[in-house]
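Technical note accompanying the year-one report. For the benefit of new consortium partners, we illustrate the data format agreed upon in the data management plan: each record pairs a sequence with a structure-token string. No post-processing was applied to the example shown here.
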Amino acid sequence: MPSPQFLRRPIAASVLMLATTTALTSFIPTGARAQTTQAQPKSSFSISAGSLSDALVSFSAQSHIQVTSQTPTLTGHKTPGLHGQFTSSEALARLLQGSGLSYQPVGERAFQIIPASKAANITLGPVKVGGLVNTHEAAIGAGVGYVAKYSSASTKTDTPLTEIPNSIYVITKDQMVDQQSQTVQEVLRYMPGIYSESTGTASWGSGSVRSQGGGDFTQRGFASTQYVDGLLSNTQASGEPAFLDRVEALNGPSSVMYGQSGAGGLISMQLKKPTDTPLHNVTLGFGNWGRYESTIDLSDKITKSGNLKYRIAAIGVTQGTQTDHIDYHRVGVLPSIKWDIDNKTSLTLLGMYMYTPGDGSGNYYPLYGSLLSGKNGYIPRSRFLGDPQYNISGNKEAKFEYQFFHKFNKYLEFQQNFSYDNSRRFFNDTFGSGLATDGQTYSIYGWKGNLGGNTSQIEKTVALDSRLIANFNTGPVSQTLLIGVDYRHIDEEWGLTYDRKAMTINIWDPIVSSHPDYSAGSTDTLASYTYPSKLDQVGVYFQDQIKIKKLTITAGGREDWYDYDYHSTYSRQSVTLGNIALEPLASPINQNSHAFTWRAGFTYNLDFGLTPYFSFSKSFNPQYGSILADGSAAQPLTGNQLEAGLKYIIPHTNVFLTAAAYHIKENHVLESSPDVVGKEIDGGTATSKGVELSAHANVTKDLRITASYSFNDMRYTRSNNTVNRYDIYGNSLGKVPLQGKYLNAYPRNMVNMFVDYTLPRDVFHGLGVNFGIRYIGFTYADTANSFKVPAHTLFDVGAHYDFSNILPSLSGLKISLAMSNLTNERYVGSCSTNQCYYGQARRVYGNISYNW
């Protein structure tokens, strides 16, 4: 995993440029020179003496001028610094003074650093100064420090965040490295509007977001959806932080661009791909619970010209967890190749394989003894309440992807993404069911995959997204028009064998006897289920981004068609009858329909950096395969959102502040049936309204901060249903109206802050420290609001040391240490009707990394 020191080396790929020379020059004719029609204004600069690389980072941030360079150009160069009022040309000339380097313009708002000898025949003129150049690298790259100012996730065009009329929060690679995030849940823990660790360590090994179901976290109270490189992905391995350069949270409906997704939003991830500058990194990691990890990340050119580049990332990890008998193991590799066919055409090929033979299961406990003190106090977090002989959980996943880009001319370009995912999930497991009124007898049931080799799920996903993007001007109006079509096909099969006879244990003194053998004919209690399904989805969408001076209007629409076939069967082994009874579990289901969604909004960029915005957007998400208690298929989720907010980039700084207020309604939200155990009903309409505040700041090159506050009021606002209220043992106390109740497992208030500071180098010689605080407000254990899960406050600390500040020969060597939940607070992440999930105990992780 690349370290921050590496990213500060001479014009590393995502630090100084946020773009390559090729991308920049694509905006102007070949051989074009800088604009000379207007003089450069002067700007205020305050740049310290020292590394030329660091100085140019500061120059780019303070002037809003992009700078690019070839890899070896800046190596070893120093600068005397700069303070005062200068034009961009004057400032750059002073920074390069005595270095033997010069510069040339590449477009209206960018410079390239070159050897002075190559600049002899170049006539330099004034360069028009404006915002950062709109480049693809800036929109999908790793970001600079904790701040990213461009995104392609929301609009599928490379757009400044201040011209997008909805909330987007970007987690950069630097932030992931500083926090030593080991799962995507941990990556997202400091973002507003997202509750990412509701099931504590139950998902420790998954490292991923489960698409469509939302998995272990929610956005603005609703289930999230996962997209990787712009395409839906159900593979868990896509969420491995060692394979990611960037994670973006799109809060609020995103169906116009992506089709079927929930009203709360989606998570967009960017896998690592070849870089424009060589990258060589290896790490060795270690931690408590017996964690050992190794990663590699290599990228370089294949051909001398550099038009063919490669990158390969790999990881191997093994460890236990805070819960006995739950272990986590993983090995994976991510190779990719980028071919710049010419200066207008590129093709990126990517493959991935991940094998997770064990990722842990069984972090569940009854309310009595976890949320509430039991007869003997609280159940220890280390206690395993399942059956150690039936605790196998893992997966095998493979992925192929390509990204194609062609620019016909300065007005029109074509982009296409394709991916194929193949995953096999396997387990032989137990789950908890209920605690007896004696306060100690706990029932557990066993189940396993029956598709061969303990396989419980086989899923194959094909996704294709093609789009044309046109850029043109009409007088004072500039437009970016996008027209696209995407297609998705999913083949999925579930196969489970279920032991219908409960086994009981004493939660205070668990002595577990194994379940019966699952071989055929051994018991009358075994039941088998199969769930094959197929999904085809097609979407046609359009979007127009209209810019009139400081005003940007974004509007778009989409039509979706889907066809879903689902069929399930049930069989039960009967020893006494000597046969197997087969019968349909439910009638075959075919769901097919279509829906239109749209959004519209605007931003207005004021001169002093403040941008107010407003938007309306709709969402649409079929609930595939969900059968209600009355036997009917669940209706698709449909939602809409009103959002208004402010985005503010403080002038002459790298500080980005946001504030958003929203109101979301989603219809046909499902809820547990009060009458039929294990079935669901249409809960009606849920409303989520709240406020989000965030700050991402590179205060200096040594001080970086991210902070957020979220308030969310989420309730059932239109429902004629009732739900059961429960006692501490999970027994019903009678029915209560659902309307007006808060949705469970989502906090009303969350406050987060993380600060990383490298101490003065002349005194501490490369030592850096960081500190984080996370406050999670109370949640409800169920939708009847029977019990509250208390609020909790967690502290994270860390340190890192860069050895290049001691000896130049140690350049590239760095050690890091991170500790989450410093005080080892025992807390509950969330609860359902009759079980709770403990949050993560104190976790210590460190690594040694080397870049060359």
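Partners are asked to follow this layout when depositing records. The longest strand covers residues 477-506.
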